[in-house]
Structures are given as C-alpha cells and as structure tokens.
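Posting here for the record, re: iron/sulfur cluster.
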Amino acid sequence: MKQVYLDTFGCQMNVADTDRMELLLFHSGYIRTGEMRDADLILINTCSIREKAEQKIYSLAGSLKPLKVANPGLILGFTGCLAQQEGERLLEKIPFVDLVLGPDGIEHIAQVVDEVKEKNGPVIRTQFDKEKNYSIPELSGETPLHPGPSAFVNIIKGCDKFCTFCVVPATRGREKSRKAEEIEQEVRLLVSRGAREIILLGQNVNAYGKRGMRQVVPFHELLYRVAAIPGVERLRFTTSHPKDFTRECIAAYKNIDNLVNHLHLPVQSGNNRILEEMRRTHTVEEYISLIDELKSAVPDVALSTDIIVGYPSESHSEFEDTLALMERVQFSSSYMFSYSPRPGTPAQDFLDSVPQSVKSKRLQRTIELQNRMSRELGQKFVRQEVDVLVEGGSSRPGIDFRGRNPQYWSVNFTGDRKQICPGDTVKVVVEEVSGHALRGRAISVNRNGKRLTLGEAPTATG
Ligand code: SF4
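Prediction output follows.
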C-alpha cells in the first residue's frame, strides 16, 4: 500500500475531515504514516480562522520543499479552509503544491489525487457543491479507523450566520444538515467499535435541521434520538450559537441523563454595540437570560465560551464589559483571541483601530481573569468524587491516566494500570487543581454496569 501523511490545523471539524480523508484514501490504497519522509502523499488540512494559524501553515510549507525536491513523485496537497480561501493564489505562494482542495471537496479526495497523477500537474478544487445534500456515504469493508473512547460525528456543515469577523461562511459555505438516520447509523457503528462518548459536531449545531433536509428534525429532537442509542454513555455537542439555542435544548439538558452538563456557547463580546458590529444577532441580556435559565435547570452545568478582544473600534469601557460578562457567567474555560482581520470577511474593510499593544494588554487581562475563575471553579471539585471517562494513559511523571469529567474538565489521575483501560469510566477523588486541570486518584471503575473498587481482584465478565 502507498503511504499518506496527514496533518491537521484548526478546529474539530478539521480533525473530523482529516479522519474522513484517511478513510477514503484507505479505500483507494493508502495507509496512514506518522513519518513525512515515508509518504507518497502529504496532505495538510489547513485553517484560516486566525492569522497565526495561517503563518504556521506557510512556515510548514517551506519545510516541505526539500522533501518534494528529494522525491519528485511525492504528491503534496493543501486541503481545508486556507486552501478554500486562497485557491489559485496558494500556487503562487507555494509553487510546488500539487493539490488545493476546499472543505466541500473532502469527499472527492481520492479522485482529486488520481487527477493529479493523470494530469501530472496541480489540481485546484474549491467550488461549493450547492446541489448535493450533506451526506457521508458509508464505506463497506475493512476500515483503518478505531475510534477512541470519545468520537466526533458531523451533523451539519457550513454556517449561515455571517458574523463580520469570521471566514467560515466563505470557506465552508452555507448550512447543510445531514440526515438524522445517517447520523444514528454512524453513532451505532462508532459505539460498536468502542466509542463511549459521542460529540455532535458542526459550526453551529443548533441550526441543525434548518436547511438541507427533506424531513426536518430539530436539533433537540436529534439529541433525544442519539442519546437513546444503546452504548452512548455520554453525549456532547459543539459549537452552538446563542440565537439558535432554544428552550427545548435547555429542557433536553434536564431530561436526557447522558447529555453531559457542559455547554460551549460563544459570546465573543460583553458589549451590545460590539455584538451588533460583529453581527452576532443577539444582545448581552439575551445571552445572560439563556445562561440563567440553563443554570436554574441544571445547577452544576459548566460553561465555556469564545472571546475576541480588540475588535475594530472597541473602546476601553466596551472591553471592560466583556470582563464583566465573563465574571457574571463564571466560565470554566474560554478560547480567547485578539482580533486580526481575515481575508474575505466584512470586518476586513473596517478600520483596525485598536493598536496591537492595546489588544495584547486586553488579551492578557482576559487570560488572567479566566485563569483565576478556572482556579476558583476547579477548587469546588477538590475532595469530591468525579466520574472520569478515561481517554488514555499519561507519560507525565506522577500521573497514570488522563480523561474528562462530564463538565469537560481535564482530569489527570493515578490508578492501577492493570485494572484501568481507556474507555472505562472511573471514579476519581480530586486532590488538587493544576492549571486548567484537576488531579486526583482513582478509587473505583465502572465496567459493564458493575462497580469495581480498585485494589479488588477483577472478576471475569462474559
Ligand atoms: S456563527 Fe460561528 S461559524 Fe458562523 S459566522 Fe459566526 S463565528 Fe463564524
């Protein structure tokens, strides 16, 4: 078999797209390698959401040139959002590239690679498929994919929100929902292969069902359907938009036992004028009212968010509003960024009026606030028992395993390596908070519905 090296930048959608390419290429005669030097095909699945991500990709591209010089038969491709955004321009910037493929063309990766071989020259594929519904055809036979305990399932692609700072509508196109039956089928398959936690994935999962479906299924209904699939021990979803987050979703948190108590709900700014400039279509008050309602339905829910500081024209007091909102909501974690203009977005034409030094200071204050809140919120778990889905072993000194609790806190813990396996749900007594993670010790493991106190001899299971 030929070998493909795959590298991924950016969000979980890209991680899922890379997995999909691995599967499609496997069926076309390629096996994944971890060594670039051994590869016949190198694919870099790119991100263009921030300037920094782009810079990293261009610097990686420079380091790939010697491989191409040493092996002219090597096919080198760029896929994903930067590929979509740049299209032909990418060939001017990186002339030794053979393949440029946008996210909407991921399904055709094997054919595009064949085209490169036939043509013996670069192939660019960045058009959106407006006709076809969003469907991920099932591939029969052997597959190289062994999901970990936690598996992503794409339910919707694209975004119709058009926030002024965001490249997604331009790079991933309009929203299209995937058929609920197909999603259920994929979840069943993943569970049969060992997945315990399912994470429903999309740029705006709450818009699920609005476009691209003949039989409309609202997002909350999909939650009930997936949660009911035997073997789904935990259900999560990401990412959400406040405008589409319905009361029915809040009810789902209350009614569905295996829907975990965590919500990632991007707010971006705590000031209404800035939110309007960003075209977020909701106010601070509406956001807070949703959060308050959710907290009263599910008191131990953990919340995380995305924040942008230094958006064009953001004043000092408007920035302070963002800090105030963060304090008010008490996020357990945040993805925090200072604004940088992105090509092809409406905000690119706005005067980037906040000096870089001011943006950096604002970002620093935001990070400091988040660090303090995370520390304080983490303290509430100390001396408590938490349920941890074991993701794998740890090579860090003094830690045997890593996993996550339902509220999406990373938990590092000690435990008997002979008795605990990835995919187990383990009771851990939290002993301390370390950065944004909890640390503790395993006291029991739940396997096949039975609780085994660690230290006891494991009983054989049928
Ligand atoms: S909702 Fe999210 S993905 Fe869609 S445009 Fe806004 S920031 Fe981008």
